[in-house]
Amino acid sequence: MELICPAGTPASFREAVDAGADVVYCGFRDETNARNFPGLNFTRKELEQSIAYAQSKGTQTYVALNTFMRAGDEIVWYEAVDDAVRLGADAVIVADFGLMAYVAEYHPRQRLHVSVQASASNVDAINFLVDAFGAKRVVLPRILTIPDIARIARQITCEIEVFVFGGLCVMAEGRCSLSSYATGKSPNMNGVCSPASHVRYRQDGNDLVSELGDYTINRFPDGEAAGYPTLCKGRFEVAGQYGYAFEDPVSLDVMDHIDGLREAGVCALKIEGRQRGKAYVAEVVSTLRRTLSADSRSRPALIHRLKLLSEGQQTTSGAYEKRWR
Amino acid sequence: MKKPAPTLALGPVLYLWDGPKWRDFYFRIADEAPVSHVTVGETVCSKRLHFTEPYIADVIERLQTAGKTVRVVSLAIVTLERESQYVRSLIRDSGHIVEANDLSALRLLNGRPHAVGPLVNVYNVAAARVLAARGATSICLPPELPMRSVAQIVAGVPEVAFEVFSFGRVPLAISARCAHARSKGHTKDNCQFVCSEDPDGLSVDTLEHRPFLALNGVQTVSHTCQALVGELSDLALCGVSRFVLSPQDCDMVAVSRVYDDVLKHHIDVEDAMSRLHQIYPGVPLSNGFHHGQVGAAWIAHTKSVSLGAEI
Amino acid sequence: MKLPPLLAAPFAVIPLPVINRATRLMLFRVLKQHPGLFDRLGEHLGKRYGFVPTDLPLTFVVEPARPMITVSRKPGTPHADAIVEGPFFLLLALLEGRGDADALFFSRDLAVTGDMESIMSLRNALDDCSVDLPRDLSVAAGPLRPLFKRAAGWIRDRALSGESVWN
């Protein structure tokens, strides 16, 4: 199985390549991708240089163009596709079927992957995108169990890629407007979730309080591990009880299940984290590379130390295990 | 192409209401509500299907007899084989227009007239054109879409009737996990249908006791009720065909009459707002998404950017 | 993991102008080696970034637009758009891209207040530059050179010994 690794900067990109990535995925420094964070991502020139570096090491590059085109400004996304193709991206990762139609029409030979943001969660949905736009691979939403994935794999003709490590969306990806409800900016439209511009931290006594827009979304007692200031991992009051209404601040780790995923028909394992630093990328990619080639007994020890790097310093198998629901 | 005057449509009941209440709601809509289109059926959770199943034929018949155009809704989230089979049979067997709410329904509906619901991501003209070419005759645009995008899309695909989510708590997210069941100590697989205890959603408040969101089974909706009222004339002007009212646990016939009165210029926006506050008390109204702002916000004066000039 | 008192103590007695002069020399030296250091800041170039090492009696304010760094003595919080607080060696590790700010934030080793967007862009800017303090500063620290070399070397030893700076 291929290991698909994140890069938010050229430095991270090189670290990922050097650490043993089969593929590095990245995006342009604008709203055409879902990690449109300040100071992150690639200029055209940086992508060109990065792709050249990857090619020199036999590593592939995927370019994420996984936001939804803003009506009237479609040209921004079309040009991003044109440039990714021209610069030699091995695949483009697309969420908007309007943009998929453009790729299929103007770059029919370009390898098209369905982004997790497209929310293609079943056989008919995937086959729609395969038949209509020639998609070669689908990145499955993090709402399926491993048996679900195996069943789907038997009935589709394209490849399957799944997230195995890193940030975890609790909501079905590409179908969440929680962020724009609180801040006006959303993953689909702006490529950001709970944008930094709307996040504030303040110390209240011994508690660290996080606020998103006008809303208090968490309160961490002194010493308690913190998470990203996303709404789906905030503490709220529901029916008189205080706590994590949707999910704790945790991140995804299903490296324990890689044999099951392989048997299910998964061909590529994806690491989330384009917003993370190059030190994180190097550490996670090299560890998971070793884990993939290790036997199943020695895997847990390898992975264990990565927990400390994770959101809330906790990990979960998420929807891959049925009991998470 | 001159479009006919816009009308009102009733979206599907998103909450789990008990069967008789659900039936009586639609009977009254059939008899009294000035809406041209009604979408019925379950879109949020496949586990709930059996609650309305015994009543749906009667409901559809009553609505049709009353002259409403009836549509049946597909599931928003399809992961299980059972759910796939349900969507396939719905589309194969239904004699009605189906409103697609996920990509699987879009595949199955290819080549035949269908509606597209607000949970399919149509953010631009290109996406709308893809759907139109496959047989979509109407598209309800995503609730988070700002007016600027609505105007662009409506102008760009004149053959499709566009709908805008104009009243109701906004469906913001959907998950494989059921926060509603979990909040009451259950898992999704053994949920005991506790979402039926909250016919208007279960409030999610901030740690400072401020109502923020509401749980509706696996779906999360806004605490605020999106209410596009002062915006209707601009939307109508740019060619929107229908305004969708999403059922809340309040007098939806009265809500539809308020909107109808606004469309017919029988009342002004201020009157309409105060009537909505009376009909659906205690829930703040919002229109921020429409104005490209925080979705929960209320943008006071809605004399919006002179769209007339752009069209 | 705190700065050993042996390294921290001298900063309480060295006159502030001396520290300021040395620190500025270091900033200019690093910028000379990495002229693109602040490119990724974009609209946040004009912000003031405060750094409060929990184990030093000093605070730092960096103004990339000028560019300038100003050192003050504690107590007193720096006048800045965004402030990062944490052990000195972690702040330096972040400068060198040897730590992951998110992980350090999750573990509560770092605290960030103020304008989050500007601090994120600075983090990403630093992360993309391969700042190497012992190398970049080998000629620049003036009278403080031995101290800074020792501090930098101390960090480097830990980073390279396989002990991640976040552990």
TrEMBL record, chain A:
Pathway: Cofactor biosynthesis; ubiquinone biosynthesis. One of its GO terms (biological process) is ubiquinone biosynthetic process. [4Fe-4S] cluster binds at residues 169, 176, 193, 232. It comes from the Bacteria. Its cofactor is [4Fe-4S] cluster. Keywords: 4Fe-4S, Hydrolase, Iron, Iron-sulfur, Metal-binding, Protease, Ubiquinone biosynthesis. InterPro entries: Peptidase_U32, RNA/ubiquinone_mod_enzymes, UbiU. One of its GO terms (molecular function) is 4 iron, 4 sulfur cluster binding. Forms a heterodimer with UbiV. Belongs to the peptidase U32 family. UbiU subfamily. Required for O(2)-independent ubiquinone (coenzyme Q) biosynthesis. Together with UbiV, is essential for the C6-hydroxylation reaction in the oxygen-independent ubiquinone biosynthesis pathway. This is Ubiquinone biosynthesis protein UbiU. It comes from Phyllobacterium brassicacearum. The lineage of its organism: Bacteria, Pseudomonadati, Pseudomonadota, Alphaproteobacteria, Hyphomicrobiales. The gene is ubiU.
UniProtKB/TrEMBL annotation, chain B:
Coiled coil: none annotated. GO terms for molecular function: 4 iron, 4 sulfur cluster binding; metal ion binding. Pfam families: Peptidase_U32 (PF01136). Transmembrane segments: none annotated. Keywords: 4Fe-4S, Iron, Iron-sulfur, Metal-binding, Ubiquinone biosynthesis. Belongs to the peptidase U32 family. UbiV subfamily. This is Ubiquinone biosynthesis protein UbiV. It comes from Phyllobacterium brassicacearum.
From TrEMBL, chain C:
It comes from the Bacteria. Residues 32-127 form the SCP2 domain. SUPFAM superfamilies: SCP-like. This is SCP2 domain-containing protein.
